[in-house]
## 1
Amino acid sequence: MPVRVVESSTPAQVSGTDPGNRSQLPPSSLLGAGQAFSGTQNVSNQQKEEAWRVNVQIQGIDLEHGYLCGTMEALNVPMADTPVITFWEGEIVDGKNYTFYTGKWEATREDDMRHWSKFPSFSPLQGQVESDGGRQLDLNNYPYIFMRWKEQYFVNVGTDCGLTIAGFYYVCFSCSDGSISGFYYDPNSSPFQKLELKTVNEGRSGFSFSSYELQ
Amino acid sequence: MPTTTTSAASSSSSTASASGNNSNRQADVFSRLASSDPEVKLKALREVKNQIIGNRTKKLSFLKLGAVPAIASALADADDSEKCNNILVQSAAALGSFACGFEAGVQAVLDAGVFPRLLRLLTNPDEKVVDAGARSLRMIFQSNQAPKYDFLQEKNMEFLFSLLNSENENVSGLGASIIAHACGTSVEQRVLCEAGVLEKLVILLDGSLSQREACLESLATVLKNNPEAVSDFVGLESGRHLNSVTELTKDRYPRTRLLSCLCLVVIYNTSPSYFVNMGTKSGLITTLLELLNDPGQSGDDAALGLSCLIAGKEDLQKLAYEANAIKNIVDILKTDSELQTKRLQGLFLSLAELCSKLEDCRCSFVSLQVLDLLINALRHKDADVKAAACICLRNASRSVKNLSAGRFNSDHVMLPLVQLLHDPSSSVQVAVLGALSNIVLDFSSPKSSFIEFGGIKQLIELSKSMDPDARCSALRALRNLMFLADNKRKELFISDVNAQGFACLISDPEPPVQEQALALLRNLVDGCISSIEFVFDEDGLILDTVGRQLRKGPQAHMAIQGMYVLTNVASGTELHKEAVMQQLFPQATGSENFMLKFLQSDESQLRSATVWTIINLISPSSPGAYDRHVKLRSAGIIPQLKNMVNDACLDVKIRIKTVLGQSMSFGDNY
């Protein structure tokens, strides 16, 4: 979510893509366009405990390119009069388009490993990722999807709102129940702000799915 | 002292008497064309020929006065004696000039019945006569109206080869032109290759400019979409001629560069494995981009050639993007307002291909203000240009990021598109529906310009079109419009389409139409729980129709949407879940339950959708879940799921695990 940021002069790194011979990840019903998630982001710092309510909606997903996008809405943001909505784009770690190594956004490999290892579902993969970047991993059959989400712009407020969106999220999605956890990374913000989301069923007794088809 | 010249080629007087003099002179020429004095006739022929060369207006004017039949008579009347040779040459030249780049002229020449006479000139002992005849015939063969040439007839093939073998460059060029414009089928391509045409054509590659160009054009025709022909060509002298064609892309003449590029595009599209060298691909793209700036026909053809080359090929689109293709094309569109329709069409199609798969390209559109250019083109008088602009908009709007930012959701964009829904051309209608399908996905706001312009009513009309593609496209646009729609928007649709009407759409004879209708219904019953009520209107007609269609054993894509309708309804209240059970287990049974069939489908999405319906039906929070579980178990559905615990698709496997977990909570065991 948007935070206040002090300038950083770390140079950008080469985005580490490693195409190899992988195919795209198979689709997961709960990570599809139209799916909504709701929860919180813990924005506590040394001064105080604070959490924002957050709603996320997936707007598009392109597994062939390891891409997805959507909006994030933060409610009860102290600096803002209204909920703050941002548009974000995501990279899916599929071993074909993107790997566990970010290679940009001022995130070093050490930063990457520090964050991924905070997800329990990453531990079975950790050894291989550390040794060869995870080239041999069969992510197609793993019931968790790892992503990076980067907010691109504010949808409903100006850039002079006193908030910035300089960092990005390391995200883990559980294919079985659609729950999402994430950690916000920004060298100039409190570390490890946790995002926790669950699927939303809008008052229904079960799951409901909308769809569109781009021509 | 001002004087007038007798040639009258540059008469520029603007007085009435001068124009009177013009028409007098023209009438005079006709009487002289019919003169029995060969010298007078010859002079008249030269006069007409000199006036019409490169002058379309004069061609039209003489055409209307009947010049072509008059000249055809002069040609027919001349015998083959030497003294008539000049008449043969001049009349053939004049006829050729009428046919040159002027379709009405070609028509007139063919209607005058002079084609066989022109062919006979090719066997005249006088080289000049042969030349004139060959040139004239080449002009005719540039046109689509040229007579069909039957390559399958042996004597025609012999004649063709006699032309190709000729020392005379116009005659051999004619042979190549005939091939370029008349060879259409793979059978003809095979017959020509077997007769050795490739070996003859490659000789022309080393010939004069005119022979080279004729050869390149005819090679492209013989090789197009024919891997065997391409293989034969590349195999000739171990690829020497492929190299020659590649070298010609750097020739100093633009037309040669263009034709060699088009030849390579044909070879690449037929057999891409001959182009492993990245440099060749880049070179080809760069040359075509440069040729876009050529003011003549080469520029028109380059635009279409580029779109053909990069169509469907992400790697080439990327190369073109990196070579600044978008900016080049946009600069041409912005600076030249008088572009020919063919070039405009080609440029828009190239832009369309560039952003067909690449998000970076689509985002460039916004930053380069291409949208305004496209909106202007939507008002062009030519249908092909309008359709190309719509296709371009369609591809650009595949960018969810830009849709989300509301880039297309403005009156400025939407109004001309909505107006084009009434365009008389069906290709424009199809193209605009494609663009609108995407653009109505306005994640950005509940306000929709499209709806404000009465778009919903128009789409509902089109969903009843005689043309199944139009019905399908209209329903797809409605589906997208109703994606995550609020009740207010859904009501705008439902109020205009009653249950009976919607049931007809679901039962459309065409499966793709059924699929889109069901996908639309799926979206209508998603969201707020009260929206599910729509399927119960008129005694549950819509839900019954869905059930009936699913029982008919439909195609997978339609079944997927149908099952998601049931899934969404089954996520509602107890009543809704029971209504779904009614559809799964209707009173009159006897046939195998369709869910069992769907669970065994090869299509993983269908298996997944079916399992989701089950998950919702036995969702533990609902009171009737246990009874529904019993029924599903005794129908063999739960046991079927137990057999599928190792489904090849991860998503299906996970959903089955959910069901079996729920099942266990009802006391069932794995």
## 2
Amino acid sequence: MSTTTQKHRDFVGEPMGDKSVTALSGIGEILGEKLAQQGFDKAYVVLGQFLLLKKDSEMFTEWLKDASGANSRQAGVCTQCLREWCDAFL
Amino acid sequence: MSSLRSKSAQDISDLLDEYGIKHGPVVDSTRSLYERKLKEAMAKGKPSKPSSDKTYYREEEEVTYEYRTPVRSEGAGDRQSYSSYSRSKPEYRGQNSVDEPYMYDTPSTYRNSFMNSTPMKSPDAPKTPKSSRLIPLWVQFAFFLAVAVFLYLVFSSMETNESLKGIE
């Protein structure tokens, strides 16, 4: 039984289009700002990184923690969010 | 320890393959992550497994599996294609033993002594029991026979006169 948040459900339920990076589950204002500084200002750019890492959850989680300063929970949640989005739409 | 930064993307990719790290393309955004992974792998002292074989994915899985199982099984299947790959490893480790000895010292000496004592004559049998079947083969045969016998009984009990005459 998954305990997903509304934010997660909102993201995974439709194509991400031009949504901001803060629309990703686990990514709030602060983390979003840090990512945007590095050029990851849209959710699809982060998706791009996820795909570059061959959709490897571990790798992506590590990268995200590195790039944004996210903790394990936040990074894990974001990874899960992207994974499910890919399962549905990719 | 040569600097990873100065290596080309292809070199980084090859190094990742050597350490068995599954990876995507080495581009700007992924490079620093992969460099870090390589540093960790080097620090752990993993043996590098260079392979020019393009099917390294499948063989790597089998090789790591063999690492975890008792080492004696490696000496046993010399003739198999994938264990011949593992056979090339001890020769390579001979070169690397200077750099990274600690983790695989025991297995390598184990393997070397085993290689010396059982050259090329080990049977293929030890490999086959590891075939992954959910239901053992003999169970499948027995079940098939049981179904066949059952059907025959049903058939013979249903058709009393005519069919027997037909058979005769």
